[in-house]
Each structure stands twice: as structure tokens, then as C-alpha cells.
Amino acid sequence: MSSASFSQSRPHPWHGLEVGPETPHTVHAYIEMTPFDQVKYEIDKETGYLRVDRPQRTSAQLPALYGFIPKTYCTNNVAALMEGSSEGDGDGLDICVFSERIITKSEIILNARVIGGLPMLDDGEADDKIIAVLEGDNVWGRIEDISDFPPILIERVRHYFMTYKLVPGKNVKVSIGDAYGLEHAEAVIAASMKDYKEAFGAG
């Protein structure tokens, strides 16, 4: 983008930003949370600002940056790719981005290179977590597929999402299947882009 091209008002992070430079392999990620956050932040769909969703009850910390891919939506096409799902969760497609260098700020945009994902079912709804690495990262930048990524880091992502909604006395219906690779992750991203276009018009 040239210096002469700019938005005169702040674009909505979900609807006003582009999906990415080379979708579905390299996408834009809008970051809602960093690994240092002890409160669950989530985009406010009406205003586009970050809203405090809830304080975290457990001590688990997400080992990656966490947010969503703009102009994606998880409904019928995404649900069709996950066995056991009745529908999508009705949000933008979630993404976890690993960076070797510490990033402490949220509400940022970055280029993320997709390597795979985790198939999460949340109360019967498809809630995929795309796994990616920061483009140009000096440690993770050459990883092409989740099969080449340290399993312990994927295990930590899985543990976080299996526990982050735990409330004493409440039955949380969350399950996460085996991690999938780049090919299926790209199919999920393409499906979420199709869901977005069908719901909101041209993406």
C-alpha cells in the first residue's frame, strides 16, 4: 500500500480488512489476545473494538497469539468439513500464530503463514483453530506443515482450549480431534471465506 492510500476512518477488523496477501496459504490475522493476557478478550461485532469477554478462571496460558482471519465466517460450509458438527460457531475463523520474538500487543494485524489446525467441537458447533507461524519468523518461518512443528506446542494449544471455559459445577462440552495439516487447513479457510461471502456479500 502506498503512502497516498489510506482509510480516512478505522476499518472494522472483521469486515473492513482483507483476508490476506496469498490466501489461503498466507493470511492476515487480527490479534485479540497475546500469551500474556489473563482476561479473555473478544472483538465486539458491532463496534469493532476489543471487549472484555471474561476473566480466565484457570492458570492455563495460550502459547501463541490468538485472533481471527478477517472476512471469514464459520457456518454451513465450515461445519460440513467437521464430523459431528451441527453448525459453525457463527464467528470469524480463529487463528493461533506462533512467533519466536515476544509480541505483547493485541489489536494488531500481521501476516500469518498457515501450517495446519485443530478441529474443535464446542457444544456441537465447529470451532476450528487454525495454526500458523508469523511470516518471516527466524525460527518458525520455514515450517511448511504442522507435522514439522514441535508437538508440545500443539499440545499446549489443545490444553488451553480444552480448559479455558471450565467453570465449577458446569458441564463444558468441548472436544478437540487430532491436528490436521496444511491441505485441510486451507480447505477450512476457503470454506470460511465462502460462508462469509454467502452471509455478507463480496469479500
Features:
18% helix; alpha+beta; five-stranded mixed barrel; four-stranded mixed beta sheet; single chain; Inorganic Pyrophosphatase; 203 residues
Can you characterise this structure?
- With 203 residues, this protein is an alpha+beta fold.
- The chain has a single domain (26-200), classed as Alpha-Beta Complex (Inorganic Pyrophosphatase).
- It is 18% helix and 28% strand.
- It has 3 helices and 11 strands.
- The protein has helices spanning 76-79, 151-163, 182-200; strands at residues 26-33, 39-43, 50-55, 65-69, 87-88, 93-98, 108-118, 120-122, 125-126, 129-134, 174-176.
- A 5-stranded mixed beta barrel has the order 1-4-6-10-7. A 4-stranded mixed sheet has the order 5-9-8-11. A two-stranded antiparallel sheet has the order 2-3.
- Strand 8 and strand 9 form a beta hairpin.
- The radius of gyration is 16 Å and the shape is globular.
- The chain starts with 25 loop residues before the first strand and ends with a helix.
